[in-house]
Write a structure and sequence with these properties.
23% strand; 18 strands; eight-stranded parallel β-sheet; Amino acid deaminase (chains A, B); lyase activity (chains A, B); ten-stranded mixed β-sheet; D-amino_acid_metab_enzyme (chains A, B); disordered N terminus; 405 residues; 32% helix; alpha/beta; homodimer
Chain lengths: 405, 405
């Protein structure tokens, strides 16, 4: 541990230290390095098997060090959700960004135009689903003497963004055609995650593929190969399967965008992984699935009633919108090693800085004990932390990563 | 607006700029300065009328610039929830911190001991509700040759932390007595917000008051006056009323800890304010209530269906656990002024970076339009932002504040 205070994740990372030795102020978010490495390799093999590119959604982690790990593991680019996220990635040397959202507002146009002006080698594209938005982009980027690359976004009725039908698509394409040199169509994009059933997911993917083919056949893309992109973190296997229809088509560049595979979880994405491993032959051949890599350590703060513990871990520290954190390990300071937490220890409520843990009256759980929690929904856990510690299998700190939220 | 990019809240604040002129990348969180000033003065008058001290809960904002405004408006100190928060406040010259939580874990003990070592004029106290925790504090601070000030925390059955009965209280007090010079009892504390009905709130406040008197009468406080502290942001009026029983008692120093009064909201705290103004004579005499001061501006990103707009504002940008953001203003770029948003525009769902807004089919709401949202639950909105802009009544940027989450 570093001499003098205050302790910070960065100073701890520099100095080494151990979660179990209480060298670190808790609560803390940790990334388990062996699991990270496993997940990087898993996704590299999966996308290689399908011959598709990977542009992991960086909004999940917003951590430049993790972007770098993903790019070093072969990712084609980084997907992002907002213009300020693109700026943060650019500042950390990411030079290929797919914005899986509409770019709206002059403030955001300017952020992107400034990046394109700073480095003409910066590759950036966003999605469009309305003629109004295309016209606004056209006016702005034409005035700047720049070109903005766009992908037509396909959506589903009752879903989120994206054109619902061919009439909307044609209106967008017609507007793009009015801005030669300022707005360039480079592909078609879909976020299938808003269609919850597999049949609906496959249907929108097939419609997206048909739209891509229709534009290609009409000579509508500014260049070939043209991008066909889909896949959040829950259905990337189905996207790979459906878009495999273009396998070997030299005109097509398929780009998948899952973000949560890097850390996985024990909630929504573990359930998705169970489905993937049951149905996808490539995943099945790889054997082991993704591993949860993002965990939280916290202290028992109070044992006010026999069946209740209050843990110093709150909504400020962990996602709570897709299931509460799940106790995984229990460690009493100075014990030899952590034990598995009993399955009946369950978080039943959270406040800003507290979690309410149900236990049994006779359980040996004391104030000051350490608990390690698994989580559900990495995105809304990452954004609680400016730094996360990287730990080894023995819970020793071997590094730290910053986030840029 | 500043020349060159990237725009940041800080550079915008330095350069001036306007939300309506789209000088700022949206979404953005803004603090409306006239409302902030009003709220500071409101709470100054309220606490002055009761003759009590104010230690606003700083975990709400974690913004040193706002701590400074609160202290300049007469606050006695700043309440905080965690040791790292206390470090952040200390680094920004706050020298009186009440930790309204147990201090647990060696990492956190060390953070606080280091602050006490750096400045012997730093006043810090935390709460205790278990003999185990007192013993751990005693061992650590005795070994450091330091003393830690503590308040006995009173709790309610089925609630959060705090002793449930006299036996627990006596066990804690007995353990404190074993650590003379290392653990010093300076008061009694309660968080009444976990008792949801007014009768329950009054009951636990009365029990807290009785406990304070019993300890005082037994000579149990290390010094007089001794602190009696309560009050989250929902029941501070009832706390002031109940603790007014000690008005004029020179042995007592009553400290209230609301944090959300500074920005207020249109959800949980507007409902609390309605109750307060209906029942509390001091509030009623002051006339106008607290004003919502924290708002969010965002762009309409997509109009994919006649009755639906997708707004570029997500769970990454706003609290969503106590009601979704509420559209307040609608502005079309280049219009003269914003209009009030129709009451039927309602957020029905949020994703990480998107809000789903129900509108009527004929409503004139376009991609690129700006919407200003009120919020519910300031704490979980503040923690989404590293900077917030300070704006005047015309939505011009007049400053910015940082946060230290």
């Amino acid at each position: 541990m570093p001499a003098g205070g205050p302790w910070t994740p960065s100073s701890i990372a520099a100095a080494g230290g151990s979660i179990l030795a209480e060298d670190v102020s808790l609560p803390v978010a940790v990334l388990e390095e062996p699991a990270l490495r496993h997940n990087l390799e898993w996704m590299r093999r999966f996308t290689a098997a399908y011959g598709v590119q990977l542009a992991p959604h960086g909004k999940t982690t917003m951590s430049p060090a993790l972007f770098r790990m993903q790019l070093d593991a072969g990712a084609w680019g980084i997907t992002l959700a907002t213009a300020p996220q693109a700026v943060a990635a650019f500042e950390h040397d990411v030079r290929r960004v797919l914005l899986a959202n509409q770019l709206v507002g002059k403030g955001n146009f300017e952020l992107i135009a400034d990046l394109q002006a700073r480095d003409t080698g910066f590759w950036f594209a966003c999605v469009v689903d309305s003629a109004d938005n295309v016209a606004a982009l056209g006016r702005y980027f034409a005035a700047r003497g720049q070109c903005i690359k766009v992908l037509l976004e396909i959506g589903v009725e009752g879903g989120r963004t994206g054109v619902r039908d061919d009439a909307q698509a044609q209106a967008v394409l017609a507007e793009i055609a009015r801005w030669p040199g300022a707005v360039t169509l480079v592909g078609v994009e879909v976020y299938e995650g808003v269609a919850r059933e597999e049949a609906g997911v496959r249907a929108v993917l097939q419609r997206t593929l048909a739209q891509w083919r229709a534009i290609r056949d009409a000579g509508g893309f500014a260049q070939l190969p043209a991008i066909l992109s889909g896949a959040g973190s829950a259905w990337f296997d189905v996207v790979a399967e459906e878009f495999a229809a273009l396998s070997g088509d030299a005109d097509a560049q398929v780009v998948l965008r899952p973000g949560c595979y890097l850390t996985h979880d024990v909630g929504i994405y573990r359930r998705a992984a169970a489905r993937i491993h049951a149905g996808n032959p490539v995943a099945r051949d790889m054997g082991e699935s993704l591993r949860p890599a993002l965990r939280l350590w916290a202290c028992v703060q109070s044992r006010p009633e026999p069946g209740k513990a209050i843990v110093a871990l709150g909504k400020r520290d962990a996602a709570f919108d897709a299931g509460f954190p799940v106790p995984a390990l229990h460690y009493r300071p100075d014990a030899a090693a952590p034990a598995e937490a009993p399955a009946h220890w369950q978080v039943t409520a959270m406040m800003d800085q507290h979690a309410f843990l149900d236990v049994h009256a006779g359980d040996d759980l004391r104030v000051g004990d350490l608990l390690c929690f698994d989580i559900s929904h990495p995105c809304l856990t990452f954004d609680k932390w400016r730094h996360l510690l990287v730990v080894d299998a023995a819970h020793r700190v071997v590094g730290a990563v910053d986030t840029c939220f």
